[in-house]
Amino acid sequence: MSVTVPMTATRSAVDAMLQVEGITHVYGQGATAHRAIENLSFTVGPREFVSIVGPSGAGKTTLLRILSGLLTPTEGTVSLVGEPVDGVPEGMAMVFQDYSRSLLPWLSIEKNVMFPLTRTEAGRDERRRIARESLEAVGLADRHDRYPWQLSGGMQQRVAIARALAYRPRLLLMDEPFASVDAQTRSDLEDLVLSLRDRYDMTILFVTHDIDESVYLADRVLVLSRPPAHLVEEIPVPIPHPRDQITTKETDEFVDLRGRVARLIRSGGQPDGGGSR
Ligand SMILES: Nc1ncnc2c1ncn2[C@@H]1O[C@H](COP(=O)(O)OP(=O)(O)OP(=O)(O)O)[C@@H](O)[C@H]1O
């Protein structure tokens, strides 16, 4: 059995994969301005799996848009391996909740996975090889010639993951990726993502509303406050790997951590649990 030692919460800029410093984001101006994020800082290390949770509307998607270079923060900086992020960076890929809108229905799943690689220097044979390997990694090699609409929702999300893998990202951002699939498929996809983190040495930042999922997957859970979002607490998850959907969730450690995260979210940012225990 392999055991991964979880990363510690404190990390220097030197060994950071991702560094977020003093991010504030305000949508709009004047009387209608909305302060979504307030002075948010954290660091994520190489191969670390970090879950981000918080109340609805806390600014989690806004944060991922900033990290992926799609949105410039009002204040603060983001660095990926020491390089400032000021546009969509190389080495980063993203998976969204809505797989049905992210896949092109008129292309086979292999072509869907190959499609973004047309912007790279890889030739057609190389693109096909990468796509086949990525589909094999998510268990869909034998369906490469199918179309998205011929697959279940869980399988379509596997295709979206394969497409992200085709970039061979160092950092994978995932925004509530399993919110639209059934419970059993969700468990399978969670275990798939954990195995892919190991196989491809990726750092993963995973936004979710599901508290069990946030603890089960992560080396560390970041809890955000009600808007404007700031960091309420970073909770290390020192549960060994490999994790198991049934036995891990039965351990006292898991139950304690889940309770801690739930109380912090319910209190909306009061570290003492807001008296709602
Ligand atoms: N383009 C925009 N213009 C103005 N306000 C916006 C914009 N995008 C988001 N917001 C506001 O910023 C706040 C944070 O939104 P965001 O989608 O980042 O939150 P979230 O934590 O991802 O939400 P949820 O948990 O419901 O998915 C919300 O109040 C939202 O209405």
What sort of overall outline do the alpha carbons produce when their principal axes are compared?
A: globular
- Mind telling me which CATH architecture of the domain at 1-91 and 171-177 and 202-272 this is? 3-Layer(aba) Sandwich
Order of helices and strands: EEEHEEEHHHHEHEHEEHH
Average pLDDT score: 90
Note the gap between the termini. 37 Å
Q: Examine the coordinates and then state which fold CATH places here, giving the name of the CATH topology of the domain at 1-91 and 171-177 and 202-272.
A: Rossmann fold
> Would you report the number of β strands?
10
Structural class, from secondary structure content?
A: alpha/beta
* Adjacency order of strands in the biggest sheet: 6-7-8-3-9-10
Strand content: 15-25%
Helix run count: 9
Q: List the ions, cofactors and other small molecules found in this model.
A: adenosine-5'-triphosphate
Q: State the share of residues found in helices, binned by percent.
A: 25-40%
What features would you highlight for this structure?
277 residues, alpha/beta, Rossmann fold, 6-stranded mixed beta sheet, 4-stranded antiparallel beta sheet, 21% strand, disordered N terminus, binds adenosine-5'-triphosphate
